[in-house]
Specification:
Distance between the termini: 31 Å
Number of helices: 3
Largest sheet: none
Strand content: under 5%
Number of strands: 0
Helix content: over 70%
Radius of gyration: 17 Å
Order of helices and strands: HHH
Oligomer: single chain
Low-confidence stretches: none
Length: 90
Amino acid sequence: MTEISRERTKLLNRVKRVRGQMDAVERTLLAEENCTDVLMLLAAARGGINALMAEVLEDHIRLHLLQDGRAPLTPDLGEELIDLVRAYLK
């Protein structure tokens, strides 16, 4: 399995987890559960989406901006950008 294929599989698994979290939010709302439960589920889903976004941004930077030295970014600057994006999404 190629590296890109493994990365795609990893991203798709994250999407499935987020979908499961959103399904849990829907079930909780339909069951008219406690608002606290809904808020906790939404926070978990938001965390999952933020993690997915961070992975996609990181992959984009590594695969497209730093690939084959074509990019105006140096590897050090690219890694710094990744760290900044990860800090922002927390």
